Amino acid sequence: MKRLPNSATGRGKVRKADLVCDEAQRLAHLKVPLKKIRDALSLSKECPSKTALIENVKLFSETQTPYGKVTTCIDVPLETGGTHAMYCNDPFALLSAACAARPGFGDFLARYLPTDSGSKATLAIYADETTPGNQLIPDNGRKYYAVTWTFAELPQWFTTRNHGWFKFTYLPAETLENIRGGLPSVIKALIYKFFSRDSFNFETTGVRVKTFASQQHFQASFGFFSVDERACKYLSDVMGASGLHACCCCKNVCGAGFMPPAGHYFCHFSEHRRARWDPHDPASFVDLKETLDDGYNNGANMGVLQTTVGLNRNVNGLLWDPYIANIVKLPHSIFWDAMHCEYASGGNVQYLLNEFALELIDHGITLLDLDAFTQTCKQHSLNSRFWQTRVVHTRGRHIRAFAAESLDALHVLDLYCDAVVTPAGVMQEHASAVRLARDISHILNDARNIMLNVDRLDGLQEQYQEIHQRLCGSKPKNHLTRHIVDCIYRFQRLFTCWAPERDHKASKMVAANCKSNARQLELNVLDRMNHSFYFDLLHDDTLLQEVHLITPKDLGAEMQAIFGRGVVVRGSRSMNTHIGQLRAHNYVHVMGDQFLEIECFIEAQAVGRRDFYCVGFPHKKLRPQCWEQIVPQHARYVALDRVIRKDMVRVDAETGSVHSSL
């Protein structure tokens, strides 16, 4: 294979005096035939028929393993008496069948999960209500709860993709309403399945799976629930901000109904100083349950007592089963979700976006102006009337937006602050809040390096809470978000709901086409999701690859002539990379203080070697955060491993210069 020179691959040291020479050599010998690549990538690709994809949809669900059949039914009690046979996956059989179908999956698990005697993996559980259709026309008749799980040790790139969270059950909301104890009863059934007293148990017996060489055995202990404020209330029976105790992680943090005097042991959830909080531990949390039981047995007013304690008495809840309580160890098993706390469901950033927009209006800037500015920014999901249609014209309210939109809008405002607000010398506190939120978002988006940045995250969040509360008022999520740092320290990693929420897309498509029958939905959604997993295990070569092209196409002989005889050269407009998914027209920062607008991606594969390149248009730096495309425009090859991060940019309509947020 022909090798790219050092300036393209990043290998070896290049003196500044040699840059011009290296650049000329690269243009002379590696000129990119961009038109031919574009033509090749524009050709349609034949897709397998849907009939072939769903043929024998129950095949994987009915697969027999040493642990039994992949799917099983667990009886959960009903409010009206009797039981409901909840259709779910047996986790031991699921892993066994998956590794039998593709032994490489067993090797993949063994690569990341601890296999030494006495070492155990960490189980993460996620449960969320999902409604097919869209937010404007929801299909409430097919609403269901998705309960999924994964191993916390698996790499982030895998857990953020379609099958990174393993399926346990899809339970219709109609059915859940009739189950005694609600969602906690379902979670109890899950815990008993994973940690059975008299059968297979991840902590004791573990699970044995097939690998290419032989077999691999590993064990796991319960780790955490990945939750937002609403899910935490359902799972742990806490009252949240409606109770005297607003936070299940703190003994002395109070809700909106009580403002302790200065110097008191109790403090309001607006208290941003961590030293003032008195944290709960599993033993003190069980004491709350004991307090409720004593009050109930002694004829106390339970309404008042529950509000005072901040916990609802639910005899079917997790705390009221000693075996389960000893496994889950609330509240240390609560992993607060950054996505919901910051960007969705009334998150902190959503309040900041709305407040910022209203403040702009007070300064004579219309939402039409802000939408016009937004259209000069690239790499976002906001439509042309986002600000005009989503801002709520009432102080103290949050913007109406999805999580991804909220995150994109934050970065648009960051660019707006650089271009307009800061030079004008107004709204400086608002601009500071936006920049703090931006810095926090960059740390939370870099799970690989979270332990390097967790101390900085804690400091930024404290500053952000203080300034956010001055601008937007006190909100419980100002406090709850601060506990993300505690979760990171406890489990030595960052987990968010971005991945399992993204996984809902596939199950919602299945549910939307199911008959409006609760039992049929429960069966069909799980069977079809199982079949999708099985099909990809057998046919998707990229399932276990971190870096790969998405729907690649052969680029033909001309590209082979550039990269060398016998080299297979393919291209694509998108790919999964070490920094997440990249697409054509993304802007990325490259080692050596370079900036690149991507046009496409190249894979060059020979025997024992596979290299990836971004093909794009380089920009030269004019000043910090300002770039200009090099003229004449020539596409260049840049080795993928030199790409550092992608960035949202603003293109100046007059000069054509590109302004980045970093």
What does this structure look like?
α11 packs antiparallel against α12 and α19 runs antiparallel to α20. This protein has 662 residues and is an alpha+beta fold. The strands form six sheets. Strands 13, 15, 16, 19, 20, 21, 22, 23, 24, 25 and 26 form an eleven-stranded antiparallel beta sheet that branches. Strands 5, 6, 7, 8, 9 and 12 form a six-stranded mixed beta sheet that branches. Strands 14-17-18 form a three-stranded antiparallel beta sheet, with no helix packed on it. The chain folds into four domains: 153 residues, no CATH class; 241 residues, no CATH class; 76 residues, no CATH class; 131 residues. The relative contact order is 0.12. It has 25 helices and 26 strands. The longest helix is centred in the last third of the chain and has 23 residues. It starts with 5 loop residues before the first helix and ends with a strand. The N terminus is likely disordered. It is globular. It is 40% helix and 21% strand.
Question: Brief overview, please?
Answer:
By secondary structure, the protein is an alpha+beta fold.
